Amino acid sequence: MALEDFMKQAISPWMRENGPDSDIVLSSRIRLARNFSNVAYPILADHKRLEEIHDFFKKEYDGQSFDDDRNFSFISMQEVSSIQKRVLVEKHLISPHLAKNSQAAAALISENEQVSLMVNEEDHIRLQVYFPGFQLPEALKKASALDDWFEEKIDYAFDETRGYLTSCPTNVGTGMRASVMMHLPALAITKQLNRMTPAINQLGLVVRGIYGEGSEALGNLFQISNQITLGKSEEDIVGDLQSVVKQLITHERNARSRLLEQSSTEVEDRIFRSYGVLEYSRIMESKEAANRLSNVRLGIDLGLINNVSRNILNELVILTQPGFLQQYAERKLSAGERDVLRASLIRERLQLEK
């Protein structure tokens, strides 16, 4: 596939599938950090060595397939515009770090966008696998199989005592970050999530925004992931995260029920007011759009709104990001121009459902 193919649709093909508990858990992800054993980490390696890794992946894996992961496309960051990089970040196909670091950086992305591998990010290899809904064990199984496939041609930096060696000490061991993206509007509205976060942190997990470390939790979307990678197996890490996520799902559902029982009029007003604003506004900032879309999604999940599909809301969350708006307009836009176009696209997309 060409780069343009990844730019066409805001929502990745795998995201159109319904997964377990998809009313609350949007996606499950496993990310593995790996390095070549005989090459300095990207922060220290000379450009020539990083170029050799870049060229290795292009030669060995461009156009290749592994099981259901078809037609991997190799994309060199040197050939990608700043707007295109931003779109890839917004679709979670690459990290903000890779987008900024274009020195011999690249990405290897499967046709359905369920698998992507970042080359010369903080580590030589950052492999990530996504599944819709709450499917951490399934994501781990696929990531492990892909990891074995790549290891057939790569000698990983590995220590018998410490495990996989990585650029950042916090990734040493399994080199794995397991995470889920959750929509938790009721816990956010009732302020319960603020009280839960310290307890979650004490269990070796962290609550972050939609784009991971340092990002804001727009639209009540939160990423829950492990912090500990050393001293535990991959299965134990996933098991611990699963246990906490199950509790969060239960708490969120209970909070939604209580909101309907105790404040039904206020909840309905919040939801339908947001729907009306989205349907008729001419100017819409990104933060407001995310919050309004979150309210409408809550209305869909509660059965109050029946004429809008959940997938459209998933699509609009990404489509209304700055990169996608500029990709759609085929030019750089000022903040004000983005706000006008954002409102227009939301109106048009909602109109298609009628």
UniProtKB/TrEMBL annotation:
Q: What are the GO MF terms of this UniProt record?
A: protein arginine kinase activity
Query: Which PANTHER family does the entry link to?
Result: ARGININE KINASE 1-RELATED (PTHR11547:SF38), ARGININE OR CREATINE KINASE (PTHR11547)
EC number(s) reported in the record = 2.7.14.1
Per the record's keyword annotation, is Membrane included, yes or no?
no
Q: Which reaction does it catalyse?
A: L-arginyl-[protein] + ATP = N(omega)-phospho-L-arginyl-[protein] + ADP + H(+)
Question: What HAMAP family does the record point to?
Answer: Prot_Arg_kinase
For the keyword Nucleotide-binding, the answer is: yes
At which positions is ATP bound?
Answer: 27-31, 92, 126, 177-181, 208-213
Q: Which gene encodes it?
A: mcsB
Q: How is its activity regulated?
A: Appears to be allosterically activated by the binding of pArg-containing polypeptides to the pArg-binding pocket localized in the C-terminal domain of McsB.
The record's top EC class is: transferase
Q: Which InterPro entries match?
A: Arg_Kinase, ATP-guanido_PTrfase, ATP-guanido_PTrfase_AS, ATP-guanido_PTrfase_cat, Gln_synth/guanido_kin_cat_dom
Q: What is this protein called?
A: Protein-arginine kinase
Organism annotation: Virgibacillus sediminis
**Entry's family note:** Belongs to the ATP:guanido phosphotransferase family.
Start and end residues of each Phosphagen kinase C-terminal domain? 24-255
Q: What does this protein do?
A: Catalyzes the specific phosphorylation of arginine residues in a large number of proteins. Is part of the bacterial stress response system. Protein arginine phosphorylation has a physiologically important role and is involved in the regulation of many critical cellular processes, such as protein homeostasis, motility, competence, and stringent and stress responses, by regulating gene expression and protein activity.
